[in-house]
Design goal:
Blueprint lengths: L1 E15 L12 E2 L3 E2 L7 E7 L5 H6 L3 E8 L3 E9 L5 E8 L7 E9 H7 L6 E16 L16 E5 L4 E5 H7 L1 H8 L3 H5 L1 E3 L5 H11 L9 H13 L3 H14 L5 H10 L3 H16 L2
Parallel strand pairs: 10-12
Antiparallel strand pairs: 1-9, 2-4, 3-4, 4-5, 5-8, 6-7, 6-9, 10-11
Helix pairs in contact: 3-4, 6-7, 7-8, 9-10
Length: 290
């Protein structure tokens, strides 16, 4: 994410009503280029098609004005087109890319000829289109959001997750928010709510610690495939759906011929259909090679 400042530029042009005729279909009235000195090499202009840019579309809609904003290099901008003296506007935030097509933002059918005539915008055979562009000028890189563990108060409510050989302290509120299972434990008159302890007998302390740290935004130094699968087992057991989806996406991304059997075994045991389907798809590719 970038820290930006906004530089606003605008321009207006007068268009003749006589340019609505069929001979002008596909013919643009270009504006002069305007330079933005804050970004080297950045210029912009608008192409106005008073009788529309496309003959077929023009016939269907019985006449419209098309507008195109054109920039000279990639940039982000908030763009507003307006017909002077009316409520006819079009505004949007645009990310302009690097190729020729991505340096143009088209607004086909910006306004119909009939609506223009009925609006009173046409004075003495002319009307005015105004374009305002608010460019994002990057100043610096904005820092990534801090992991949540750095934002927590030191005296926040905690519970203990008790494994076979270790008690792991965890933030009670966070567990309640990410897991409906933990939420039920701590908000109803259950033993976990009364004692402040959750006993976990089917997962080791490393897995529990990894899940808690990862959900708090802490980096895990290293982890094995079995470690990831155990984290997925924990997330599945306690219905931490966000973590489940995140880990499944990761496993599908790293799926290959060497780890497919291990991942499929876990997916089949725990009824993870997305993982199973991904493994089956890879197996089909493997079979087709022999």
């Amino acid at each position: 994410m970038s820290l930006v400042k906004h530089v606003t530029d605008s321009s207006s042009i007068s268009i003749k009503e006589s340019d609505f005729n069929d001979s002008m279909v596909g013919n643009a009235i270009p504006w002069p280029d305007r330079s933005i000195k804050e970004i080297s090499g950045l210029k912009w202009h608008v192409d106005i098609y008073p009788a529309g840019d496309d003959w077929e579309y023009q016939q269907i809609n019985t006449g419209q004005v098309d507008v195109y904003l054109v920039v000279s290099k990639p940039v982000n901008a908030f763009v507003t087109f307006q017909i002077k003296g009316t409520n006819t506007t079009h505004s949007e935030y645009v990310t302009f890319g690097s190729n020729d097509r991505e340096l143009v933002r088209a607004v086909p059918g910006f306004v119909l000829h009939e609506d223009l005539r009925n609006s009173g915008a046409i004075k003495k055979g002319k009307f005015v289109i105004r374009c305002e562009v608010k460019f994002d000028i990057p100043i610096a890189e904005f820092p990534a959001p801090p992991p949540i563990y750095k934002l927590l108060k030191e005296d926040c409510n905690t519970v203990n997750l008790v494994t076979e050989n270790l008690e792991i302290e965890a933030n009670k509120s966070i567990l309640t928010e990410i897991s409906p299972i933990f939420s039920a434990m701590f908000t109803h008159n259950m033993v976990e709510s009364r004692t402040g302890e959750v006993h976990i007998v089917d997962l080791d302390s490393d897995t529990v610690r990894n899940v808690i740290d990862y959900c708090l935004g802490k980096n895990l130094n290293t982890i094995t495939l079995d470690g990831v699968l155990n984290m997925l087992k924990f997330a599945d057991k306690y219905n931490i759906n966000g973590l489940t989806e995140h880990l499944e996406t990761f496993l599908i991304d790293i799926l290959n011929y060497e780890n497919a059997a291990t991942i499929y075994k876990h997916a089949d045991l725990h009824s993870r259909e997305n993982l199973k389907n991904a493994c089956a798809k890879l197996r089909g590719k493997m079979s087709s090679r022999f």
